[in-house]
Amino acid sequence: MIVLKTARELSLMREACRISAGALRVAGEAVRPGISTWEIDQIAYEYIKSQGAEPNFLGLYGFPATACISVNDEVIHGIPSKSRIIKAGDIVSIDLGAKINGFNGDNAATFACGEISEEARKLMDTTKESLYEAIKFAVVGNKIGDIAHAVQTYCEERGYGVVREYCGHGVGKKLHEDPSVPNYGKAHRGVRLAAGMTLAIEPMINQGTAAIKVMPDGWTVKTKDAKLSAHFEHTVAITADGPVILTKE
Asked: What is the mean pLDDT of the chain?
């Protein structure tokens, strides 16, 4: 069931999204050679708690941390660890959210650790650009397929693989709500967008093929060909005046 938010509910969601964006910012600022993914996770946790909110990933479906931190060929759901040390040249995807006043925020970004390869930079730039291309279609009267098609065509035209098995979603009182928001599909298909919908749009894009594999920990998802992956996400409100990115500080 798709839940349309009232103006008051959107106002409450803005606070959750603002905190989510702040936590992502400080986590990204912490990315440097020698830091562990566990330390980055603790920084995000402390920030969210300092804002009076709760980290909404922690304990969700049994996930053991505040943030999913995925490095290089890890697509999503990387578990922070004291033994996973970030090195110069790595790219680090951080996905996290906060809950306050009964509402959730959700966002993600991929960060460079020092100087990275030109290929890695192009992948990151394309993934981020595809997110903003998709947001342009988050307009009343359009359909989910318009968002999905925008991501797919933008990335595939540039030679990248678009992950099929995981997708974006509605966000609200629950972190994961209807509808699903794939990153591939046909334009003009699927659920029609209406004012009051709030969507997490999140391209997950691979340098090589779209194929992925889940690691033995049951969480970490990697590219099957061991090439790089990038991930960017915003929580976006569909309004009569156009899309509004809620996960901006």
From this structure: 98
